[in-house]
Fold Putative oxygen-evolving enhancer protein.
Amino acid sequence: MRAAILQNNLMHFNPTFSCCLKPSFQLREMRLKDFDININRRIGAIAALSLVLLAKDSISTKLAYGFDFQLVAPDQTIEEAESGIIGHAQALLQVKELIESESWGQVQTAVRKSSPFLKQDIYTIIQQKPGNERPLLRKLYSNLFNNVTRLDYAARDRDASRIRECYENIVMVLNEVLSRL
């Protein structure tokens, strides 16, 4: 019985096709140049999308406590800078306890939290000084924050001797800056 059913179905099956299908190997026929352009466009689109998605993390400095060393016109007055400079300097110097306990990650975090405020205070005060005093103060300012950056890198590398050396330089330069301000 089964053979009869199959035989009947075969008789109604028309072996000729009324349309032709496009070959599935069209990719081979694409020119190599067109293929490269499509791949490059995809890579470019993926890169642009990644940049947009990851940009929010790199823009936010609160998350990383990143350094902001650009010189901009401060939003604070000279009085605010003078009243806050001692507290911000002490906050930077309190890193010594973390250095002695050798908790390098916390050293980096503390340095990154306290140094931008001190930087802004010193910059505001330097801008209010007479022109003949500014070059020396700017040199000390640069030396101070270069040592802060070196301390951060040394903490990242867990280099205890460099950390202590940078900290001593910071203390020395900071005392000189504060005495001249």
Observations:
- The chain is about 75% helix and 0% strand.
